[in-house]
Amino acid sequence: MRMAASLKLLTFIVPFAFLVPVIIAFAPNLNKIWNSEALQNIKTVFVSIFLEAAPFLLMGVLLSSLMQWFVSEEMVRRLTPKHPVGGVLMAGLLGLIFPICECGMIPVVRRLMHKGMPAYIAVTFILSGPVVNPIVFTATLLAFPNHPEITVARMGLAFAVAAAVGGLVYLFVKHNPLRTPNVAAVEVKTHPGFKMASSPSQHHTDAHQHHHTHPKSWRSFFIHAGDEFVDMSKYLVIGALITACIQTFVSRSDLISLGNGPVASYVFMMGFAYVLSLCSTSDAFVASAFSHTFALGPLISFLVLGPMLDLKSTLMLLSTFRTRFVIGVSLAIVLLVFVGSWLVNFLG
User: What does the alpha-carbon distance between residue 250 and residue 272 come to, in Å, rounded to a whole number?
Assistant: First the structure.
């Protein structure tokens, strides 16, 4: 079996051998391109984004592996509130206990959903956790020491948007949105319980997984964490590379010139947050640089949307959830953040 897989891989590697003479022939030109200012900037931005996000991703996969070890499906079902309002409120405040960045949140939530957590609670946790936590609260206060209302507005709007999106998922999503719902095939709407939907193929899958389950040991713990980290980090790498290219070739001054209108300023700051893909623990310091250029509302839209939805997290969400589900949740987030930040600006 391994030999067959190696032969398949060899068929993809062999054609690249013909590129070696081409690379050698154009080596001087490639060296100039490699050392160009634009490419140096891409490398710098890429490395900074990856190094900023990787520790939180590692923290997330380690926590996911611990949950695989110690948290049972029965425990998740027992601790999950039976009423959807209680579930949304609990999920919105879980970030106070698990202060994980958005990159590390997705593997944790995927594991919890495999254990039986309903989708609406999982989505609320994904959206609120990266913002409603003590680390981000402190960082925002430090970035805006003379404007505590920005910190309060950020926390309040993030919680409200996360709870609203979680409510929409509860109302309209009737099937498990995971791409591989093979551990707990469920009906979301009928919680409590995420009722197990059994079928011949499901029993076959469970038996297959049970056959390949590692015994509980430190070796199996790190094997699981390593597999999870490799699985999620490839999407982080792609997202960081695309973001680095955009930041290099699209100047910030050109982007700011697009955000002069009352509506365009919100669109610009939300798009800017999506493209920059900053960690929620540091984006407030970037937003503070725009405090004299934009009003309160656009600043809040930047601070709330970025941790919930950016380029790298979109790729990671698409690797975990079905495409249609990700598109629907993303549209709801954008609309709610826009309306909410406009209201904050109006009331402020």
Answer: 11
